[in-house]
Specification:
The chain has seven helices and six strands. By secondary structure, the chain is of the alpha+beta class.
């Protein structure tokens, strides 16, 4: 697996199929302005800039800013990030684990459910409302969500055990 195949795939999963095309173009060309990218890939500049900013926030691209000749506007030259792909994947792994752990914590706190409207309550919230739904006044039931908790734990374990190795002499 090389960065030439991983970066477009990751870009596509983060920001959509057009982002994959953008990353493939940048990998071939090395560096391009947003105007050039929009023209070559037949995209709206605003849509492209939004996508480039998303890729930048996810550390997949970098830019350099140059003041245009004779005007006060800046030109942005975009290029693929030079961070090793394995580092990018490890960073994504940490973010996903953080999200999953929060979801697990939230799922474990949900302990009562309204049988009428489906609203969930923690034990403290249920006790404060005398085990009645604050929306529809139905009597709350003990929530059964062991399946969701098991799925989240399984996903956490799977991701924690994932390792990334580059082959064929790449990063």
């Amino acid at each position: 697996m090389s960065s030439d195949s991983v970066l477009p795939e990751l870009a596509g999963r983060i920001a959509g199929p057009k982002a994959r095309e953008v990353m493939e173009f940048l990998l071939k060309k090395g560096e391009a302005t947003d105007e050039e990218l929009a023209r070559e890939l037949n995209m709206e500049e605003n849509e492209l800039r939004k996508m480039l900013n998303s890729l930048y926030e996810n550390s997949l691209v970098k830019y350099r800013r140059v003041r245009g000749q004779g005007d006060k506007l800046y030109k942005y030259f975009w290029r693929p990030a030079d961070e090793p792909v394995v580092s990018l994947l490890e960073s994504r792994k940490r973010k996903v684990l953080t999200i999953l752990r929060r979801a697990l914590e939230s799922e474990e706190r949900k302990s009562y459910r309204c049988p009428v409207c489906g609203t969930y309550y923690s034990f403290d919230e249920a006790a404060d409302s005398l085990f009645r739904c604050t929306e529809c006044d139905a009597i709350l039931e003990l929530a059964e969500h062991d399946d969701e908790i098991a799925k989240i734990r399984e996903a956490i374990e799977l991701i924690e055990n994932a390792t990334f190795v580059m082959v064929n002499g790449s990063e």
